[in-house]
Design brief:
single chain; alpha+beta; 4-stranded mixed sheet; two-stranded antiparallel ribbon; 14 helices; 6 strands; globular; PGES2; isomerase; Prostaglandin E synthase 2; DNA binding
Length: about 375
């Protein structure tokens, strides 16, 4: 039953909002003074003297307006062409990949990957792994989820670890490098954790392997790149560890959580019944141990609320997302982690007692409206 520890919650609710941004081009109004002023002259000479300069001024104004309009329209159309070119390139790149995600639906790390794939409109198949037997991933020496198998032409690649999966696929979409080459930038490394257990870590997992021009196009500056990496790591190192203590906080919450896990997971009938009651009891006590390990407060909700408000403060009031006008990888990671609590008491409390709901709904909307 310990293998089910990382299994947690569902997809976000779909919203049917739409955005409509339509730039407008303005036309300069042409002055008619040069034409009407000549009517008051006393003869052909007067008309030429008075009307000539005015006609020249009107012609210059008209010519300047036409040139301004031409360059504005040219810039606008060129920017549209570049956006379409990038979209077509990304679509072309993504169409070369066949993705299969091995997951527990209610695992926060798996939810992060789904949020990324859905936002970038990458089609993928899902294989729900039985958290007890894990027969679905018996082909892999890496025994955790998520795992993404990527077919690119004749090449079949296995991506492990949620942050590596996201970084490698984003690097691929931006740079177009062969995925087999990109994977070599994230080598696995054996390490011993605080509990003395050997674990696999991955180098560079929050770093996108881009050249200077690609990084500039994507981020605009080093500060944005550093900020994204910092908060992606925060989601893995801190936020995700607040989930279990909060959803298993009381015996009733633990039972409700496992009831959902059993409904959404790949369990047999007998396994499901055992998981619901034995798993709920086990996780209630394990959550207490996790609370001590991570030095959480007696009321773990306070740590959850503080984390949510810290994130909202980091995003700030002047931008809808940490990524600016659209979610970046940090937005998607934090959203993916929190989404697994939807439908549970902990999630409802989070929305009521923090300032995170507007941002959360904006990310949900951005993912829902991603072109499919």
């Amino acid at each position: 039953m310990a293998h089910a520890v990382r299994a947690l919650w569902p997809h976000g609710r779909a919203l049917a909002w739409r955005l409509g941004d339509r730039p407008a081009l303005g036309l300069h109004a042409q002055s008619r003074a040069g034409f009407t002023g000549a009517a008051g002259g006393s003869g052909p000479g007067a008309t030429a003297r008075k009307g000539g300069p005015r006609l020249l001024g009107a012609a210059a104004l008209a010519l300047g307006g036409a040139l301004g309009l031409y360059h504005t329209a040219r810039w606008h159309l060129r920017s549209q062409d570049l956006r379409a070119e990038r979209s077509a390139t990304q679509l072309s790149l993504s169409s070369r990949l066949q993705l299969t995600l091995y997951q527990y639906k209610t695992c926060p790390f798996c939810s992060k990957v789904r949020a990324f794939l859905d936002f970038h409109a990458l089609p993928y198949e899902v294989v729900e792994v039985n958290p007890v037997r894990r027969a679905e991933i018996k082909f892999s020496s890496y025994r955790k989820v998520p795992i993404v198998m990527v077919q690119e032409g004749e090449s079949l690649q296995q991506l492990n670890d949620s942050s590596v999966i996201i970084s490698a696929l984003k690097t691929y979409l931006v740079s177009g490098q062969p995925l087999a080459d990109i994977i070599t930038y994230y080598p696995p490394m054996k390490a011993v954790n605080d509990q003395g257990k050997e674990v696999t870590e991955f180098c560079n997992k929050y770093w996108l392997m881009l050249d200077e021009k690609e990084a500039q196009r994507m981020y605009g500056g080093k500060e944005a790149r550093t900020e994204e990496m910092k908060w992606r790591q925060w989601a893995d190192d801190w936020l995700v560890h607040l989930i279990s203590p909060n959803v298993y906080r009381t015996p009733a919450e633990a039972l409700a959580s496992f009831d959902y896990i059993v409904k959404e997971g790949n369990f047999g009938t007998v396994e499901g019944a055992m998981a619901k009651y034995m798993g709920a009891a086990a996780m209630y006590f394990i959550s207490k141990r996790l609370k001590r390990r991570h030095h959480l407060r007696d009321d773990v909700r306070e740590d959850l609320y503080e984390a949510a408000n810290k994130w909202v403060a980091a995003v700030g009031k002047d931008r809808p997302f940490m990524g600016g006008q659209k979610p970046n990888l940090a937005d998607l990671a934090v959203y993916g982690v929190l989404r697994v609590m939807e439908g549970l008491e902990a999630f409802d409390d989070l929305m009521r007692h923090t300032h995170i709901q507007p941002w959360y709904l904006r990310v949900e909307k951005a993912i829902t409206e991603a072109p499919q």
